[in-house]
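Below is a typical protein record.
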Amino acid sequence: MRRERRCRQPRKARFGRRAPGGSSGLSQKFRLQEQIQNRLRTDPERSRILYHRRPSAVSALFTNFAGIPLRNPVVAAAGTCGYVDEIADAIDPALLGAIISKSITRHSRGGNPPWRMVGLPGAMFNAIGLANVGVERFIAEKLPAAERLGTVLVASIAGNSVEDYVAIAAALDERSAVQMAELNVSCPNTVDGLMFGEDPASLLGLLREVRPALGRTKMLVKLSPNVSDIVAMAAAAIEGGADGLSLINTISAMSIDVRTRLPRLSNGRGGLSGPAIHPIAVRMVHDVHRSVARDAGVPILGVGGVMCWEDAAEFILAGATAVGMGTALFVDPRRPLTVLRGLERWVRDQGCANVAELIGAVRPPAPAAAHGAAASAAGTDGAPGAGRPTGVAIAERSGR
């Protein structure tokens, strides 16, 4: 029977056994990973040989995002690699299409007190609170590392006023190391309390002020999923001069410890990310691509729960030009390498010369009559994975 998903996750039972000497198999696995990482830190070239060859300019995964050439479509999502190159301890940044910095504010922020990140079934839940050193220290202390990054650096910008965004954008636009700025608009405006990213008029007003400050730098707008009409928000971003769209930010959520009766996060609410939100993100990317972005020629960065190459391929078929990985990097910072290998095979198996041929290439569902006839002939209800309990499909995806 065909498996609907092929994401491979480690079996808990495998790593739960006791190994000789009293240590668990899981501990041995982590020690082995640490030994490998130590070797890779001292020999970056070995990382390229062991895990992925350096793609050439004519690679099947080479893509162009808003006029910026990317070696491949896999991007490290905002904050998951620290400021610039912190992930270099585990993977050569030059193997990624781009890296997005953590969100930078006008002034330094300490962020929320602990707990500000917890794991939930199929998801990560966080409320970091935009902890960062501020734009001046970012430029002076962190940005110089971009010179040896070997890939495109995108700087994420956040603020609590239009003036904040404009000031940060102007400061970063003077730095050639930053080729694109991602506007994190899921922040409340201190003037009226509205989230810039949850009200089309507020977003449009913000972008009309920020766009002139980014004379050289491309403007990527990261949209919030916590809206009633994501297409309307995308249309406002495009009207405001966005060179690209990033979909989606985390989903607003809450989790409570039933024993203490307290929220699991110190902030009460937080943002949900990871595999649990992936189908939502795919749907939003699809809707925005088909409704406004495709005709406007504005590329989309699909973000949300990419754990394997199939997840990345879904985003591309839905309309994404590039794909962001976030939560997966906390699980395994070298996961992008297996995703890249899978995508390269997929492009070849689809009979395409380049991944760009598959952007937005999802096929429409079959008409109801034809769908019913095919289902009758197959003796099923016609749904993918029909006849299999829903819980089984979920368990396969999560590795349970």
About this structure: The longest strand covers residues 152-157. The mean pLDDT is 84.
